[in-house]
Design brief:
The complex is a heterodimer of chains A (318) and B (433). In chain A, 22% of the residues lie in helices and 30% in strands. With 318 residues, chain A is α+β, with helices and mostly antiparallel strands. A 5-stranded mixed beta sheet of chain A has the order 5-11-10-7-8, with no helix packed on it. In chain A, helix 1 packs parallel to helix 2, helix 2 runs antiparallel to helix 3 and helix 3 runs antiparallel to helix 4. Chain A starts with a helix and ends in a 6-residue tail after the last strand. Chain B has a single domain, classed as Beta Barrel (Porin). Helices cover 4% and strands 46% of the residues of chain B. Classes of the chains: A alpha+beta (318), B mainly beta (433). Chains A and B meet through helix 2, strand 5, strand 12, strand 13 and strand 19 of A and helix 1, strand 4, strand 5, strand 6 and strand 7 of B.
Chain lengths: 318, 433
């Protein structure tokens, strides 16, 4: 209530000779958490009320009754407006409307004019090609916003099992902050590690049925290896977006629930050094992205290193 | 200002309703489709072809050999270390020019360059690995071409260096059994005996005793001790001959019908960021360069490897004892010679390497290394020779497929052999595919 009082005093008192504060909207408040978003929504609601009050009163004072009526009516149309504000503004709004001609003075309560609209979500589909003999299956496809910061993806958990001396799945896409459980489903020991900086790690030796965890905090590819079994190769790709998916065996992919906007479309395959990128505009509820051919520029793994980085010959040992 | 503010406000009303700036954390939209991807078995090729090509440039001091003009002792190769001026990963030397003196088969292969700098096409190597999906079986074949166009050197050779089948019969045990022609199980230097695997260029002074490719059967078993982050392994083989290199071995066939037994017992300590590997190796059996199975060869070795962050240390010791043969001749990989003398040698090397913190896309790795070798050995009736070598070098890795290496070998004759200028500067470019 103190804020409202302050705003009313400022708006209805003597017209300030100086510039209004905070002319730019939307307000440059960082939003990284749901709490940040709620805070920003409150501030911007107050900011909107304040400016409608101010501009309405300024117009009223200079005799621009049409503008004053418009501002006050927009203000009164806001949902859940404070009764104090309604009590002060309604007479001015009615007077401005009367003097401007017409009879519209909005009733406070539910209205759509300032109600934050729900973001329109789209489904983006596409096709990737390439991948050499492996085919395009498993290609990691993701969208990052080109016209605004990309939302921070929600932390999730995923599992990669070691079974039959293989990583299953062989390729896994996860968002930044995801925790992957590496579970040993074999009867023998495994020692999963990666030399992929800065996501390099070493889970140490663990027995059948055990799992070790790794949280990935940096975007990029992570090659998975086992210090015991040279035949084991897998990949985790860490994306910095909540809008990601992996292509099916034929290269088709679909990302759902994408807010409207302009995006960069990325695609990475295990044969890629760098993702391939393409701009895509999401302005309809169903969008078909341009067909991408993944880069297959990563040199073949000429030897399998151990966790010290020393080369191993896959035909040796076990 | 108000005239600016109000239009801005009105224009911004929709934007006010949709927060801009950094967006909030949102859910895993693709979760239902991002459980990962494992290709169908049909798309996973059961075979893999890989290999490398090793070219280089080298120059040795003097006439490129360890032989000293004016030294008239015979056999000439019993009084020097002819393996010292190595120029490539095969251990081929710059020259074996003994000045026309009699030699008796204690010889490496040679590129025949003498003391001149020369470009080398060291090795073209190709591996074929077949592992049928769902079967615990692997077939491995390594073929190599060693072109030697210089008429002064060894002849061009085409090798079926390895060809074996391996089966891992138990899914619950780290056990594999291989049969065919394979790497020796003795010591550790065989692990990096190929150009594309070796940190440096040239093999150690004791590699001649440990890095051959015998024909037979071998077993590998490893037992994990997770409570102490350790493992114990055994590698055992029964083969037609010992672990000496091809130039010192006669054939892949057995002259006696009695196999040579060899084994390495290993211990591994694997901590986060640190690894320690220790091993003891033994070998016993007939010499396999003449038909009497009672004339034996024996080897004993110790090895250690330590990896701590960017540093690695490799060290190996070997002791060799060959009984004298009862009758000539002595066939080896370089010919048939007259005398099969008794022979004893022991030696070691210690190699320290540092991996520079280079992880670029083009320059994907860089290392500096140094190695000290020392070997003492001699044939029956000849003095023991003590030789040593300092090796220093550097290595660059480009695009993960090209290695550029350069090293200098400072060979020293410490006792029993005449001092000779036989230091070597050699380089190598290895392209892997």
């Amino acid at each position: 209530m103190g804020t409202v009082t302050w705003m009313l005093a400022l708006a209805l008192g003597a017209a300030p000779a100086r510039e209004w504060p905070g002319a730019e909207v939307p307000l440059p408040l960082a939003v990284r958490t749901p709490e940040d978003l709620a805070f920003k929504a409150v501030v911007e609601r107050r900011y909107l009320e304040f400016n409608l009050l101010s501009s309405g009163k300024l117009a009223y004072d200079r005799g621009d009754m049409a503008t004053a009526a418009d501002r006050f009516e927009r203000l009164l149309a806001l949902k859940d407006l404070s009764p104090d504000v309604v009590a002060v503004v309604r007479p001015l709004a009615e007077e401005a409307r009367r003097r401007a001609g017409g009879s519209r003075v909005a009733e406070p309560g539910p209205a759509v004019i300032a109600e934050p609209p729900q973001p329109v979500l789209a489904t983006v589909k596409g096709q990737v090609a390439g991948g050499g003999a492996l085919g395009p299956g498993g290609t990691v496809v993701w969208l990052t916003r080109a016209d605004a910061p990309t939302p921070r993806p929600k932390s999730i958990e995923r599992t990669v099992v070691q079974r039959g001396k293989q990583f299953i799945p062989r390729v896994l896409a996860v968002p930044v902050g995801a925790t992957v459980h590496f579970r040993n489903d074999d009867e023998v020991f495994h020692n999963v590690f990666s030399l992929s900086r800065p996501n390099d790690f070493d889970l140490g030796l663990y027995r059948s049925g055990d799992a070790r965890d790794r949280t990935f905090r940096t975007p990029g590819p992570v090659s998975l290896l086992c210090n015991i079994h040279t035949s084991m190769v897998g990949y985790v790709y860490v994306v910095d977006s909540p809008y990601y998916v992996q292509a099916d065996e034929g290269g088709s992919w679909t990302i759902k629930n994408v807010p409207f906007g302009d995006y960069q479309l990325h695609a990475w395959h295990e044969t890629s050094l760098e993702p391939v990128r393409r701009g895509v505009s999401v302005q309809a509820e169903a969008v078909t992205a341009p067909r991408l051919t993944v880069n297959s520029d990563r040199p073949p793994m000429t030897f399998v290193p151990d966790k010290a980085g020393k080369p191993r010959q896959t035909q040796l040992g076990y | 200002m108000t005239r600016v503010l109000v239009p801005c406000l009105l224009a911004a009303l929709p934007a006010l309703a949709q927060p801009a700036g950094p967006e909030p954390e949102v859910g895993d939209h693709g979760s239902s489709e991002s459980a990962g991807y494992t290709p169908p078995q049909a798309t996973q090729a059961p075979f893999r072809v890989s290999g490398y090509v090793d070219v280089g440039w080298a120059k040795a001091q003097g006439n490129g050999s360890s032989f000293v003009p004016g030294d008239t002792r015979l056999p000439a190769d019993y009084y020097v270390d002819p393996f010292a001026p190595a120029v490539n990963s095969r251990g081929d030397v710059a020259s074996l020019d003994a000045g026309g003196r009699f030699v008796n088969g204690f010889l490496p292969y040679t590129v025949g360059a003498g003391g001149k700098g020369t470009f080398l096409l060291n090795v073209a190597s190709i591996d074929l690995q077949v592992s049928p999906s769902g079967l615990p079986v692997l077939v491995f074949i390594r073929g190599q071409a060693l072109p030697r166009w210089n008429g002064n050197g060894s002849e061009t050779r085409f090798l079926l260096q390895q060809a074996f089948g391996r089966v891992s019969p138990f899914s619950s045990q780290e056990l594999s059994i291989s049969a065919g022609r394979f790497d020796s199980v003795f010591g550790i230097e065989y692990l990096e005996n190929e150009s594309n695997l070796r940190l440096g260029i040239t093999p150690s002074l004791i590699a001649r005793y440990t890095t051959g490719h015998p024909l037979g059967i071998k077993l590998f078993y490893r037992f994990q001790l997770p409570s102490i982050a350790s493992a114990i392994s055994i590698n055992a083989a029964a083969t037609n001959h010992g672990s000496q290199v091809e130039s010192l071995q006669a054939e892949t066939l057995s002259f006696t019908g009695v196999p040579v037994g060899s084994t390495r017992l290993g211990y591994e300590l694997s901590l986060l960021g640190t690894e320690l590997k220790l091993g003891v190796s033994g070998l016993y059996g007939p010499r396999n360069d003449q038909p009497d199975p009672g004339v034996t060869q024996r080897q004993l070795g110790f090895d250690a490897r330590v990896f701590v962050g960017p540093f690695s240390v490799w060290a190996e010791y070997v002791d060799v004892d060959e009984e004298p043969a009862t009758a000539p001749p002595k066939p080896t990989g370089t010919g048939v010679y007259t005398i099969a003398s008794g022979f004893r040698a022991h030696g070691f090397y210690v190699q320290l390497a540092y991996a520079l913190p280079v992880h670029g896309r083009v320059l994907s790795g860089a290392s500096l290394y140094g190695r000290y070798d020392r070997r003492k050995g001699g044939f029956d009736g000849t003095p023991e020779l003590l030789t040593s070598r300092w090796t220093v070098g550097g290595r660059l890795e480009l695009w993960s497929v090209l290695q550029l290496k350069a090293e200098v070998l400072f060979n020293r004759e410490n006792a029993g052999a005449p001092t000779v200028d036989n230091d070597v500067f050699t380089t190598s470019a290895v392209f892997s595919f």
